[in-house]
## 1
Amino acid sequence: SEQGQAPASVARKLAALRALLRVQVELGLREDNPAELVGSPKRPQRLPRVLKPAEVAALLDRIPVTTPLEQRDRAMFELAYASGLRAEEIVSLEVESIDFDSELVRVEGKGGKTRLVPAGEHALKALRGYLERGRPALVLGPEATGGPLFLSKSGRRLSTSDVRRRLRTWSRQVQLVGGTSLVDAHPHALRHSFATHLLEGGADLRAIQELLGHATISTTQVYTRVESARLRAAYESAHPRA
């Protein structure tokens, strides 16, 4: 701490030291673990980066659908925002994961837990266009009607780094065209925006927890702090005696 290292770095090194000494105690090389007596530094809680609805619209609406890769990207990010998906969940989707009749997407979340999440009208429309015109041009081999939902230009399943790179590319183009600040646009920002916009629209916190696939409600409660910060800022800017 005296060297000016960030609290997260100090906590990480302290955890490593605790683990090392704990193993030494288990092996009988020492009698105690003095690192257990050292308190971890308090790390500042950072609120998640949330895009405004107009920023999300500017991003998604400016992704064209003239080429197979553009159709894929439009469908992918429409779905990411519509259903609040993690990057890992996006790339793990199969063609069969989308149920157009029920307007649901079957998501394999953390810990192998499966959940069914609604997909909005815009996402389903983009997915239909991609499956009808975009994906057939990308698929290789006999699995034209099955397999991974989102494919690369070489016909393989996308990686999470592919998803992040493509979103970064489109967000930069939006900035060049409209000047909207989307420097921090990343798949998790779309997920954060999905949850925050639901909360702003009156959705129940428990429902948002289920949609996000959070194991505990405490993880979801971060979005109440985002909403409180937004309301506080609005109050301070608008109230004459704030």
## 2
Amino acid sequence: ASDSGAPLGSALYHHHQNLGRPRTFELTHPYYGLEYDEAECVGALETAGLAFQRLGDAELMRATAHDLAASKIVAWFQGRFEMGPRALGNRSILADPRRIEMKDLINAKVKHREAFRPFAPAVLVERAAEFFEIDQPDPFMTLAPRIRRDKVHLIPAAQHVDGTGRIQTVAREANPRYYGVIEAFGQLTGVPVLLNTSFNRQEPIVASPREAVSCFLRTGMDVLVLGNLYVADRNPAAVARAERVFAGG
């Protein structure tokens, strides 16, 4: 559901309705953008002057889940970027939904936008009905069901003023790594839900490793994950350089 969906839908309508061609494709995920290899990620970090670690998958999930549970804000950059208007787990900023003040913290510290702006709760698809009044998957963040009354106290930062949450259901087969970090957070905290917002500040959602590093350094985020590369370095020289380059200096 976006401006890009209008021409895509028109082309599909013509293909199926006017030309009578059979349906052979089902859109089950949005990850059709460009992908960057680890060498490009390493190059972006080294150019920025940032220290980093390369972690195995299981260690990366555990480390990120512990950071999130400790109220750290994580910039999450993985694989092919999403098509459409939403950050859906490959170019996302992730945070703990259990702290009611997390919305204000991200808006003030990272996004620098109005306090009323909401964030999306990303939930494991098989656990969605436990937390939300919904009986279908929604991998594209198009619905805003009510949060169940007995669960609001567990995810207060995910609730809109009207008691709803604009959810994204996450299936393991659609995005194993995104599913994995939500699952690890759930195992650690008992809450299989993360706050998700787009990985950007004053620009469109980041696409490349270079853009991701720049945005990370120009905001108050605590951790950057590029594939399997884990970054907690925010040294002053790198921050100053990122601000200067972004401003055109």
